[in-house]
Specification:
Layout lengths: L1 E9 L3 H11 L4 H10 L5 H18 L7 E10 L3 E6 L5 E6 L2 E9 L5 H6 L4 H5 L11
Antiparallel strand pairs: 1-5, 2-5, 3-4
Helix pairs in contact: 2-3
Length: 140
């Protein structure tokens, strides 16, 4: 089950947020929050706040366990830009933009495949009872 949290019109450029996003993709929630708390980039605080919101949505609305959550995807898109002007010489102006971004975080739960599904695929029941698959497809 996927859980979504969004933060719209965050007053940080999307380029700056993407720098932080690349470092935490495909991590578990606890590892990502630990990494964001020590990151000294401007987009880290807003990303951390949105991630905490996604975790709260998963725990309260979907009754999921925090330990089983991982970041499925993070999407950073450009928001509206505030158009501002800087006065220049001879009565002229120089325009510039204060950019914003939209942050969308999708969390998913680590799902272990059921033994019955694996038996239907042709595996033996003895070897499958002790083996389960996690999100990466590795045996645990």
């Amino acid at each position: 089950m996927d859980v979504v949290a969004k933060a719209n019109s965050v007053r940080v450029s999307s380029r700056k947020v993407r720098l932080v996003t690349d470092s935490i993709k495909k991590l578990s929630v606890d590892e990502a929050l630990a990494a964001l708390s020590v990151t000294k980039k401007r987009g880290a605080t807003d990303l951390e706040k949105t991630l905490k919101s996604a975790v709260a949505n998963a725990m309260n609305n979907s009754n999921l366990q925090r330990d089983n959550l991982f970041i499925k995807s993070i999407e950073i898109t450009d928001g509206t830009a505030f158009k501002r002007y800087h006065p220049s010489t001879r009565g002229r102006i120089h325009p510039y933009k204060k950019r914003t971004s939209h942050i969308t975080i999708v969390l998913s739960e680590i799902v272990e495949q059921k033994v019955e599904e694996q038996i239907e695929k042709g595996g033996s029941s003895k070897s499958l009872t002790s083996e389960t698959k996690t999100k990466n497809g590795t045996k645990s």
